[in-house]
């Protein structure tokens, strides 16, 4: 990747694309990479060579992003791919999701880590059923920010009135899905010509908003769940035992014979020495005596940071335990009401015995009744289905073997999410969200 | 000495470091016999540095494995052995030349040994019953790698099936595998070449000297500067000349080229990489030029 080497620390924005197959997503991604100089000469030459081999007169830029042999042979995009580019102020990780087959699976995968999603529509068609489905999934996964990219405006002669109509319709849709107005940006653009992607379009003088790249660079993004209460799933217990050797490496540690550090990535909130915490699921209370990384002790650690926490009392907190704010702990339960995004070919039926991975704990689970299925186009729940099939989203009750400390997904994304795993194959079957993240959206409460 | 982390958002390198450390700890928590692939190159050296940070002040709970093609740069082998010894980590070496000597593998007509690494790698994984194999692969390196998962299942033959990949949701990695299968793990998937160099500068990580400008007898082949060596260079018509060069990647000597460069410090290297109009593989790796899907095809066979 080329780009400016700024001495200033830059932050990282993780975002995802969503859109139907012919909305020009590959062209937009290619344009973003090209205009940020993230496509280098040898990659462009490779695409030119391959295009000539295929008998094309002009380079096919979709070859830049379709990496697999089968994708190039069939002209389709098979799976989520990750792209990287950077500017002077920010680095970007783009989850580039294919739009047509298995859209729920791909959109859910991309959206699970995204702090922003770019949803594409074709300016000639405006908001179509697929737009509504994608927006519903992005709302369900609680992606904090949304960009509507109205693409191909060159094909409607930069028709301001038509663009305003699409904007109005989409803004209404986003509101009905629970997105605040400040979380949504609508940008008319042409990925093919380059208008309003990285460069301002000369043919849209009436458009006063930012280009897509300006918006991506400037949009304020909070850390993951920074405002939520402190949660730390314990990944690994660090016990050096051999004090003499390690002590010489880090003078701040002293004698390590009794050192017992609880290692993990802060899932939400902030932790400081002296904080009162509770170790779950057992519920022992203690205080944090030290928060550190390999670089030394910290005054505070926020969400996303991998740390090691030391506790004042000698409490057993093995992998799978969770250390949480004592004043605001998660619920401990063996009965879960959850929303599932079913990602596998094999359908889900009530009574299935599966594995559930939540935080650092994997436990057994028995699937109870399927309460409702989501009609993603109408964004309303329909009657209880017999089974969930691939790309279905449904409400279900689950009984887990071990008590789990869970938050509602609507409150904390990191500790409200889980995956379901097929015991015989080990395959990931579903993305699970604790509770009903769409409950706040009018008209979407499950019936019954 | 106490550092405050008060900003609501981590800077990019801190976020990438934390993600990689999270991956190392997940594997330590869930697998029985992990191993880190370590060649002494910049990406695997970075990987080992991150592993040290993930488990400090305890030692790294994994051994190291190098698949040695026999066409290595002596400076890199010296570095590889010294780092392993300094950290007190066990270093396993699987040698392509052992396979050539007893006929299990045959030298290729083009002299390159990179594709020959796959079998010794898979044999070493089977022999030691490694169930998680860390590699320094990055998704920005190549189109096929852009589709790679952070934890990627390999079947009993070591094969990658891009159509049967598990979706990766949030930071919940699924490493389940049957006996005989293993998982390839790529903690620095989300890093770019420039991120790697910036982090090396920030952390003061030592690298083999061939990454910095030095004087070396080289000859021109297929637009690359190759070093002389037992892999059959220079051939008739190829002239050896002394140039000021450095390496962007370190691999088998037969197919890894040097670039002309005067960058002798980390700042100069970063400036050069930032301004370069060529990717590291496009500039210096002949094996990726063999066909349009060269990397994908090798990955399907079990290569990294």
Task: Explain how this protein is built.
The complex is a heterodimer of chains A (448) and B (304). Chain A has helices at residues 25-35, 41-53, 62-65, 69-74, 103-112, 129-140, 160-176, 212-218, 243-249, 413-416; strands at 11-18, 81-86, 90-96, 116-122, 145-151, 184-188, 231-233, 236-238, 261-265, 270-271, 276-280, 284-293, 296-302, 306-311, 322-325, 331-342, 353-358, 361-375, 380-382, 393-406, 417-421, 428-434. By secondary structure, chain A is α+β, with helices and mostly antiparallel strands. Chain A has three domains: 12-218, 3-Layer(aba) Sandwich (Rossmann fold), CATH 3.40.50.300; 231-325, Beta Barrel (Elongation Factor Tu (Ef-tu), domain 3); 331-439, Translation factors (Elongation Factor Tu (Ef-tu), domain 3), CATH 2.40.30.10. In chain A, strand 17 and strand 18 (361-375) form a beta hairpin. The N and C termini of chain A lie far apart (53 Å). Chain B is α/β, with parallel strands linked by helices. Chain B is 32% helix and 15% strand. In chain B, the strands form two sheets. In chain B, strands 4-3-2-5-7-6 form a six-stranded mixed β-sheet, with helices on both faces. In chain B, strands 9-8-10-11 form a four-stranded antiparallel β-sheet, with no helix packed on it. In chain B, helix 1 (12-30) packs across helix 2 and helix 6 (193-203) runs antiparallel to helix 7 (266-275). The longest helix of chain B is centred in the N-terminal third of the chain and has 19 residues, at 12-30. The model of chain B is unreliable at 1-7 (pLDDT under 50). At the A-B interface, helix 2, helix 4, strand 2, strand 3 and helix 5 of A face strand 1, helix 1, helix 2, helix 6 and helix 7 of B.
């Amino acid at each position: 990747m080329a780009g400016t080497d700024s001495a200033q620390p830059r932050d990282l924005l993780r975002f995802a694309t969503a859109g139907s197959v012919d909305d020009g997503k590959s062209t937009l991604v290619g344009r973003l990479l090209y205009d940020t100089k993230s496509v280098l000469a040898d990659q462009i030459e490779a695409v030119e060579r391959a295009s000539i081999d295929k008998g094309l007169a002009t380079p096919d830029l979709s070859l830049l992003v379709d990496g697999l042999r089968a994708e190039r042979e069939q002209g389709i995009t098979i799976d989520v791919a990750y792209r990287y580019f950077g500017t002077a102020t920010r680095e970007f990780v783009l989850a580039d999701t294919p739009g047509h087959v298995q859209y729920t699976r791909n959109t859910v995968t991309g959206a699970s880590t995204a702090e922003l999603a770019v949803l594409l529509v074709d300016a000639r068609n405006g908001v179509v059923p697929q737009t509504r489905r994608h927006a519903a999934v992005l709302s369900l996964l609680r992606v904090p920010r949304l960009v509507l990219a109205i693409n191909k405006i060159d094909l409607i002669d930069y028709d301001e009135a038509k663009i305003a109509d699409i904007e109005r319709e989409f803004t209404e849709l986003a509101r009905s899905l629970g997105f605040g107005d400040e979380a949504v940006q609508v940008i008319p653009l042409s990925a093919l010509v380059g208008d309003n992607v990285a460069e301002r379009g000369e043919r849209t003088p009436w458009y006063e908003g930012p280009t897509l790249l300006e918006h991506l660079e400037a949009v304020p993004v909070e850390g993951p769940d920074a405002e939520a209460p402190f949660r730390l799933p314990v990944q690994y217990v660090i016990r050096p035992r051999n004090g003499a050797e390690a002590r010489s490496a880090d003078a701040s540690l002293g004698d390590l014979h009794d050192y017992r550090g609880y290692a993990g990535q802060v899932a939400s909130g902030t932790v400081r020495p002296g904080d009162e915490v509770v170790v779950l699921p057992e519920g022992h209370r203690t205080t944090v005596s030290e928060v550190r990384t390999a670089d030394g002790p910290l005054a505070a650690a926020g969400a996303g940071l991998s740390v090691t926490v030391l506790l004042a009392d000698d409490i057993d907190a093995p992998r799978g335990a969770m250390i949480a704010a004592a004043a605001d702990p998660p619920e401990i339960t063996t009965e879960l009401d959850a929303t599932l995004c079913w990602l596998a070919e094999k359908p889900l039926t009530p009574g299935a015995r599966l594995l559930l991975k939540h935080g650092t704990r994997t436990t057994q689970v028995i699937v109870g009744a399927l309460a409702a299925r989501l009609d993603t186009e109408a964004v309303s729940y329909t009657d209880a289905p017999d089974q969930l099939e691939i790309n279905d989203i449904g409400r279900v009750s689950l009984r887990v073997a071990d008590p789990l400390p869970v938050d509602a997904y609507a409150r904390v994304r990191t500790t409200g999410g889980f995956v379901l795993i097929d015991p015989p194959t080990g395959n990931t079957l579903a993305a699970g969200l604790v509770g009903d993240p769409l409950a706040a959206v009018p008209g979407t409460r499950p019936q019954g | 000495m106490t550092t405050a982390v008060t900003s609501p958002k981590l800077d990019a390198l801190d976020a990438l470091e934390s993600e990689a450390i999270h991956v190392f700890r997940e594997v330590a928590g869930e697998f029985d016999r992990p191993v880190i692939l370590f060649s002494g190159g910049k990406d695997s050296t970075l990987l080992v540095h991150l592993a040290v940070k993930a488990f400090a002040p305890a030692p790294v709970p994994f051994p190291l494995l190098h698949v040695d093609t026999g066409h290595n740069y002596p400076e890199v082998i010296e570095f590889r052995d010294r780092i392993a010894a300094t950290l007190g980590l066990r270093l396993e070496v699987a040698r392509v030349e052992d396979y050539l000597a007893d006929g299990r593998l045959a030298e290729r007509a083009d002299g390159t040994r990179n594709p020959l690494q796959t079998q010794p790698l898979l044999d070493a994984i089977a022999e030691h019953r490694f169930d998680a194999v860390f590699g320094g692969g990055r998704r920005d390196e190549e189109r096929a790698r852009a589709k790679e998962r952070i934890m990627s299942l390999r079947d009993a033959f070591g094969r990658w099936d891009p159509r049967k990949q598990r979706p990766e949701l949030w930071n919940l990695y699924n490493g389940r595998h049957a006996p005989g299968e293993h998982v390839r793990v790529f903690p620095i998937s989300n890093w770019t070449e420039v991120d790697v160099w910036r982090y090396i500068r920030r952390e003061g990580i030592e690298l083999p000297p061939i990454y910095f400008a030095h004087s070396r007898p080289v000859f021109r082949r297929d637009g690359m500067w190759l070093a002389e060596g037992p892999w059959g260079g220079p051939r008739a018509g190829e002239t050896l000349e002394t140039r000021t060069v450095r390496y962007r990647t370190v691999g088998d000597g037969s197919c890894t080229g040097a670039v002309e460069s005067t960058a002798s410090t980390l700042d100069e290297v970063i400036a050069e990489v930032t301004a370069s109009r060529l990717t590291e593989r496009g500039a210096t790796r002949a094996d990726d030029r063999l066909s349009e899907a060269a990397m994908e095809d090798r990955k399907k066979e079990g290569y990294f």
